[in-house]
Design brief:
The chain is mainly alpha-helical. The chain has 20 helices and 6 strands. Its EC number is 4.3.2.2.
Length: 455
């Protein structure tokens, strides 16, 4: 069978391929090759500027040609590298040979060709490439998409700040809140999670086969290779230098980043399930789309499929990202290849996260508040006023307030009349009685509205 959207094993490259367009050029094998070329080029240019007699500073034309290899890198270039790899059976060496092949018609570059990949081990190129891939994915896709969710939820929190809603703790009726405040809670958590993702420093190393600049010093023993490496990593590539590594950069920062994304996803799993429940209760209605079918046999159904899809894909994302974060910091001695095959799945983990974000946004855009259902639910839950009544009784030292309200309300159907009859029989100052008699479940929301608006 030919590979196509219908035959792809991964739904990310099949059913959902159209939703992966932003990540595909960054975290695919093409994306890895692209970054490898970028790292090799920047290392090569930096070497020319290091002051070595044997490698003079490159001309402006040579630099322009080199950086054009990065800027104009396309699928044909990636395929050319793959074709070289069929012979080398080594992916990084194939990149080196491809770059050198582009020097054939340029005498200056061809003469300096042996400084491509100079003193580097494959992991010098790979770890910096992975850092650049994650930097772009975080900066261009993950954070902007999370920001869209945060902005959407913040707008909902403000719009629905004053709409009262019956809370449920342990699935049972509890003190009322507002819809906006419930959403504000999610936003506050998600903002913190977003900060944790953004604050992870993306580390890189370029220090040779076992992290000690052995080969570098064999060529120029008096040169400060550590300072040079740091300049390339931080000033030319925009990553953070890690001075202490084995052959590989230890990937602790990757674990930190993937754990941070997992935490954000977990918050959104929690929210997806809550919205699913609110839709089930009728608190939210969903706008329908012409031609869309909710059930193959029950025509009336409008299923909360976007929130279900979001929850499922966040689960898949977290499974992959958790494995990455637990496996990548572990390497036998100086290194083994288990990290290499696992790292090829960064796009899978973050792809499922992106799919979850996209599904959640689609679902949120369909929601419409059903204030009638919210009001009816509140009007059927007068028992929630047992809390404020017994609290006022405590203020005025009335005997056994909790026990008396427990006897009145626990496991019983309470109406407005029964709760108000109880209030009228209390030995309270008349102004306090009047205040309690005026209280309704929908009016007993504390600071919920102001908290939601303050967000």
């Amino acid at each position: 069978m030919n590979l196509s959207a219908l035959t792809a094993l991964s739904p990310l490259d099949g059913r959902y391929a159209s939703r992966m367009g932003s990540l595909r050029p960054l975290l695919s094998e093409f994306g890895l090759m692209h970054r490898r070329v970028q790292v090799e080029v920047e290392w090569f240019i930096a070497l020319s500027d290091a002051g070595f007699d044997e490698f003079k500073p490159l001309s402006a034309g040579a630099r322009e040609l080199l950086r054009a290899l990065v800027t104009n890198f396309g699928e044909a270039d990636a395929q050319a590298i793959k074709d070289i790899e069929k012979t080398t059976n080594h992916d990084v060496k194939a990149v080196e040979y491809w770059i050198k092949s582009r020097f054939e018609s340029h005498a200056e570059l061809k003469a300096a060709g042996e400084f491509v990949h100079f003193a580097c081990t494959s992991e010098d190129i790979n770890n910096t490439s992975h850092g650049l891939m994650l930097k772009a994915a975080r900066q261009d896709v993950i954070l902007p998409t999370l920001d869209r969710i945060i902005d959407k939820l913040t707008g909902m929190a403000h719009t629905l700040a004053a709409v009262p809603m019956l809370s449920r703790t342990h699935g049972q009726t509890a003190s009322p809140t507002t819809v906006g405040k419930e959403i504000a809670n999610v936003v506050a958590r998600l903002r913190n999670a977003r900060t944790r993702i953004a604050d992870v420093k993306l580390l890189a190393k370029m220090n040779g086969a076992v992290g000690n600049y052995n080969a570098h010093l064999s060529a120029w023993p008096d040169f400060d290779w550590e300072a040079f490496s740091q300049r390339v990593i931080e000033q030319q590539l925009g990553l953070t230098f890690n001075p202490y590594t084995i052959q590989i950069e230890p990937h602790d920062y990757m674990a930190e980043l993937f754990d941070a994304v997992t935490r954000a996803n977990t918050i959104l799993i929690d929210w997806s399930r809550d919205v699913w429940g609110y839709v089930s209760l009728g608190y939210f209605k969903q706008r329908t789309k012409a031609g869309e079918i909710g059930s193959s046999t029950m025509p009336h159904k409008v299923n909360p499929i976007d929130f279900e899809n979001a929850e499922g894909n966040f689960g898949l994302a977290n499974a992959v990202l958790t494995h990455l974060s637990q496996k990548l910091p572990i390497s036998r001695w100086q290194r083994d290849l288990t990290d290499s095959t696992v790292l090829r799945n960064m796009g899978v983990g973050l792809g499922y996260a992106l799919l979850g974000y996209d599904s959640l946004l689609k679902g949120l855009d369909k929601l419409e508040i059903n204030e009638a259902a919210l009001a009816a639910d509140l009007d059927a839950a007068w028992e929630v006023l047992a809390e404020p009544i017994q609290t006022v009784m405590r203020r005025y030292a009335l005997p056994n307030p909790y026990e008396r309200l427990k006897e009145l309300t626990r496991g019983k159907a309470i109406t407005r009349e029964s709760i108000q009859d109880f209030i009228r029989g209390l030995e309270l100052p008349e102004p306090e009685k009047a205040r309690l008699l005026a209280l309704t479940p929908g009016g007993y929301t504390g600071t919920a509205e102001s908290l939601a608006r303050r967000l």
